Amino acid sequence: MYDEEGDEIVELVLNFFPFDNSVQIINTKKGKTLLRRVQLPPLKLEMLQIGNVVNIFSKLLQITDCAPLTRRTLFKNVESTFAMIKPIPPSEHGKILTFIMKNGFRIVRMKNGKISKDFAIILYHNISGSNMMPIIIDYITSGEVIGLELVAPDAVKKWRKCLGATEPSEAAPGTLRNLYGENTLKNIAHGCNTLEDATQMLELFFGYEKGIPRIPFRATLNNCTCCIIKPHAVIDGNIGSILEVIATSKKFYVSAIALFSVKLLNAEEFYEIYKGVLPEYEAMCIHLAEGKCVALEVKSDDASINIVSEFRKVCGPRDPELARQLYPESIRALYGKSILYNAVHCTDLPEDGELEVEYFFKLLAND
């Protein structure tokens, strides 16, 4: 935790008691109990992942490690794998992401992009001698893909099992390829065979070289609006559902998508226009910084519309209760819980659409 008065990072011990959802915070170096055991209903066990930031009574704590017993109990055999959604219509992305999250994977990194022939050759090195290789390379580099880092116990094997057989007609019922695959080539998604391959592909897809992402972000920063899927909606597994609402609106499409972790200072800067205007400004900033969020650049094929104003109708009023009364099919009506936890942020002012997209995809992406 950052101590503003002492201008230092303080190491604390957070004890979580899942049977009654209570927490206790101890400063072991000083031998002081900073927070006596108290119930905290909003805190969920799945939030307590190493690297996550949690909000404990408006104090942001970053989880850096856990006790050995906790690691053996909660994180036994937990690992990362690389998954990639192949070039398919963007309208299909939502249901694929929903499938992934419902099958127990945690998405910790995600972005869309176009891969090069060199990247594809490395990705499919295990079939380098196959006569299908040139066809696969042409297909996989023909359009946009979505790369993901998925975390789960035995994630590499689990993802391969969830994918199903390469040929969709031979895939087990309920697997991703059985549900949505067309043929051996267009079989929805890719999975790595080994942990070593997964580690290599994660670095190649999400890594940076001389400060520049190896796979560039796809934001156009032109005639667009910004939508941020808030941390609570990410934790609730609603990324895919929200993307489906946007896709089925028929007016809009997502041109860029990426998962971000936002620092409190950045959240305050991003929401600055609401300072002194909205009473929940401080709480909004804390929530944006307390977990991972998904940034979207949203565009429309209809150049005649005011994209910022029209997309706000898809999101609905800021108050989900009001949204449920007036626009029951809007994003906030369907997935919002309160004015603070209202599922998404969307650009309010027409002149700010490109600026807000730029803040995430240009400034934070290269931070």
Automatic annotation (TrEMBL):
Protein name per its UniProtKB record: DM10 domain-containing protein
Q: Where in the cell is it found?
A: Cytoplasm, Cytoskeleton, Cilium axoneme
InterPro entries documented for this protein = DM10_dom, NDK-like_dom, NDK-like_dom_sf, NDPk7B
- The yes or no answer to whether the keyword Heme is present is no
Kindly state which keywords UniProt assigns to this record, in alphabetical order.
Cell projection, Cytoplasm, Cytoskeleton
| Location of the DM10 domain | 1-78
Which range is the signal sequence, renumbered to this chain? none
Q: Which family would the database say this protein is a member of?
A: Belongs to the NDK family.
- The keyword Cytoplasm belongs to this UniProt entry's keyword annotation: yes
GO CC term (a single one): axonemal microtubule
- Species of origin reads Pieris macdunnoughi
